[in-house]
Amino acid sequence: MKQSESPCEIIAHALGALFTCSKVKNYVRIRTPFLYPDGDVIDLFYLEQDGVSTVTDLGETLRWLKMQSLSIKRSPKQLKLIEDICLNHGIEFYKGMLSARIKEGDDLAKTIMRVSQGALLIAQNSQ
């Protein structure tokens, strides 16, 4: 990520008009064109803190999944699927959140796409 460009400028140039962003408290909210199976929009959040940049869903995917089920806990099959999707997309699954850290030289747009795709796959396949 270039130091001179803001996250919103990078998103506009690299991902186009289907992705929008806005400042929400300490985060930059990234509205993606992807939808959960019930039509809700998948939003991601970008945070830069103490020199570490992160793209996360802030737990929205798992919160959405919880609302679709009568069971309070996720089944072992659901947990395995979530772990596999996270592993394949280079995403961390911690405290119910999907996150990806952006290291020096990483592409913010690619990171956003990885987390978006992970959230979409988890929502589609974990019901």
Tell me about this structure:
By secondary structure, this protein is of the alpha+beta class. The protein has one domain (7-125). 39% of the residues lie in helices and 29% in strands. It is built from four helices and six strands. The chain has helices at residues 7-15, 60-67, 76-89, 108-125, and strands at 20-24, 27-35, 41-49, 52-56, 92-94, 97-102. Strand 1 (20-24) and strand 2 (27-35) form a beta hairpin. The N and C termini lie far apart (35 Å).
Give a quick precis of the structure.
The chain is 39% helix and 29% strand. The chain has 127 residues and is an alpha+beta fold.
Q: How do the helices and strands line up, and which of them pair or pack?
A:
Blueprint lengths: L6 H9 L4 E5 L2 E9 L5 E9 L2 E5 L3 H8 L8 H14 L2 E3 L2 E6 L5 H18 L2
Antiparallel strand pairs: 1-2, 2-3, 3-4, 4-6, 5-6
Helix pairs in contact: 2-4, 3-4
What is the structural class?
alpha+beta
Distance between the ends: 35 Å
Radius of gyration: 14 Å
The number of distinct β-strands equals 6
The largest sheet, given as strand count, sense and whether it forms a barrel, is: 6 strands, antiparallel
Overall structural domain count:
1
- Give the helix tally: 4
Instruction: Give the proportion of residues in helices.
Output: 25-40%
The sequence of SSEs as H and E is: HEEEEHHEEH
Main sheet: strand order: 1-2-3-4-6-5
Shape field = globular
Oligomeric category = single chain
Mean pLDDT rating = 89
pLDDT < 50 runs, ≥5 residues: none
Q: Tell me what portion of residues adopts beta-strand conformation.
A: 25-35%
